């Protein structure tokens, strides 16, 4: 197999692979969905929440752009947002979830009278912006580590196991209009508590809530799992248990009633953030590779293809030597021009070129007027006392006129006239024979 054929085969395979990725993309995006997204119908997805909000008339809409350009009026739901960069990229660009411009945009949007519902088990920049604090339960975060009760000899619980250990939570204050109809809900037992950053975490936690902060849910241990903060004309609701919004979680206790109350837009409609789950305006091959961390493998494959192309390609060949053009005489020029005239049937043009050259030779030899051409050339020669030359020129002019008037080409006669013209020009220039004739401008 030649080098070019190898490159062709590899290129075709790469195109087939790309087409397979593109063809696997489905409109409902179920093949790309992850945990807590409204596209997923898996137990840890949130497709049921989308269907519930549609049935309740909240007019849900998925947002697939960052928070720098927030939608119109309404309620924005953001569930367990993913960091902006992961892996190696996080080492260079940081592992933050929201940029500074996004945080400022959300703050302005909330102060204008809108509602943000942040459901996250870990702190992000929006918690800090609204003075919220997530306090891990005693004993660390078992959601990220194996449970200490794992018997010896058994495999430990994998990180972020699903479903997580659950516990019951009840409304923290009663009565609350926003929690009407909610008796108890089921949350993650090890979800962090939602606190205010300026509040000391201790036994008097219940009495530390300032004006503008309202605890919404508590578990049996008194830990707050949901809280509301007022900011300007709007509000922010923090929940620390993403299990609440999942397809499985909506079936438990009064979870569906709680979300129906908290997500009901006071104005506008309900917006569900999918941008921070990796979804963009158009889900394509590039975004799939980026989100699945396959872009490193693609870069390595491209580098390998470039190396193979450089290694096996021989289309450039060895370096060529210096090319020197051969010097050519006037005879080559005359023969080349004769072939051009003969193949193009430019008989009259060739004769006219020779006739013009004859006129120039007579002007130079006998000092005739520069405009002497054709019949005027013969008359000028007679006036200059060159009757013999004029006698040779007149028959040639007559034959050229006859050839021009003829309906059929006469190559032999044309060649004879051209030879006579060439001999006469050579004689006028002091040369011998038509073979030594040089056209003006020839080398």
CATH class of the largest domain: Alpha Beta
CATH superfamily of the largest domain: Class I glutamine amidotransferase (GATase) domain
Total E-strand runs: 11
As for the CATH topology of the largest domain, it is: Rossmann fold
Radius of gyration: 47 Å
- Main β-sheet: number of strands, strand sense, barrel status? 9 strands, mixed
Mean pLDDT across residues: 75
Strand arrangement in the largest pleated sheet: 1-11-2-3-10-9-8-5-6
Written description of the protein model:
The chain is an alpha/beta fold. The chain folds into 3 domains: 29-138 and 163-280, Rossmann fold; 284-316; 330-436, no CATH class. 38% of the residues lie in helices and 13% in strands. It is built from 13 helices and 11 strands. The protein has helices at residues 3-23, 47-55, 88-93, 100-111, 125-129, 255-262, 285-291, 295-312, 330-344, 347-366, 375-383, 387-405, 411-428; strands at residues 61-63, 74-79, 115-119, 132-135, 166-171, 185-188, 193-196, 213-219, 224-231, 234-239, 269-273. A 9-stranded mixed sheet has the order 1-11-2-3-10-9-8-5-6, sandwiched between helices. A hairpin with a 4-residue loop joins strand 8 and strand 9 (224-231). The chain is rod-shaped, with a radius of gyration of 47 Å. The protein starts with a helix and ends in a 15-residue tail after the last helix. The model is unreliable at 22-32, 140-159, 199-208 and 432-443 (pLDDT under 50).
């Amino acid at each position: 197999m030649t080098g070019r054929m190898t490159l062709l085969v590899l290129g075709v395979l790469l195109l087939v692979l790309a087409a397979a990725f593109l063809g696997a993309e489905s409109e409902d995006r179920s093949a790309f969905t992850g945990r807590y997204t409204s596209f997923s119908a898996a137990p840890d997805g949130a497709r049921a929440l989308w269907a519930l909000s549609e049935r309740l008339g909240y007019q849900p809409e998925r947002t697939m752009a960052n928070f720098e350009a927030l939608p119109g009026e309404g309620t924005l739901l953001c569930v367990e947002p993913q960091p902006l960069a992961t892996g190696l990229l996080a080492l260079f660009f940081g592992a933050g979830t929201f940029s500074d411009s996004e945080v400022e945009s959300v703050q302005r949007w909330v102060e204008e009278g809108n509602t943000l519902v942040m459901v996250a088990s870990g702190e992000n920049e929006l918690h800090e912006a609204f003075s919220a604090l997530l306090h891990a339960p005693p004993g660390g975060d078992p959601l990220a580590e194996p449970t200490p009760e794992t018997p010896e000899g058994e495999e430990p619980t994998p990180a972020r196991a699903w479903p997580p250990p659950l516990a019951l939570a009840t409304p923290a204050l009663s009565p609350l209009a926003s929690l009407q109809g909610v008796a108890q809900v089921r949350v993650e037992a090890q979800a962090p508590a939602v606190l205010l950053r300026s509040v000391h975490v201790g036994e008097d936690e219940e009495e530390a809530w300032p004006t503008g902060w309202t605890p919404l849910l508590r578990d049996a241990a008194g830990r707050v799992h949901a809280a509301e903060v007022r900011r300007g004309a709007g509000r922010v609701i923090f929940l620390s248990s993403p299990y609440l919004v999942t397809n499985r979680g909506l079936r438990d206790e009064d979870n569906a009633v709680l979300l129906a109350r908290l997500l009901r837009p006071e104005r506008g409609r309900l917006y569900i953030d999918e941008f921070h789950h990796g979804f963009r305006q158009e889900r394509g091959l590039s975004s799939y590779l980026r989100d699945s961390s396959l872009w490193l493998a693609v870069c390595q494959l491209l580098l390998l293809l470039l190396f193979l192309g450089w290694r096996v390609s021989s289309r450039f060949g060895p370096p060529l030597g210096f090319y020197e053009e051969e010097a050519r005489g006037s005879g080559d020029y005359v023969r080349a021009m004769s072939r051009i005239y003969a193949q193009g049937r430019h008989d009259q043009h060739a004769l006219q070129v020779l006739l013009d050259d004859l006129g120039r030779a007579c002007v130079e030899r006998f000092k005739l007027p520069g405009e002497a051409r054709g019949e005027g050339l013969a008359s000028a020669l007679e006036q200059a006392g060159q009757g013999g030359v004029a006698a040779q020129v007149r028959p040639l002019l007559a034959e050229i006129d006859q050839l021009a008037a003829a309906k059929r080409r006469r190559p032999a006669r044309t060649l004879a006239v051209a030879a006579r013209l060439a001999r006469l020009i050579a004689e006028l220039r002091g040369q011998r024979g038509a073979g030594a004739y040089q056209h003006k401008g020839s080398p």
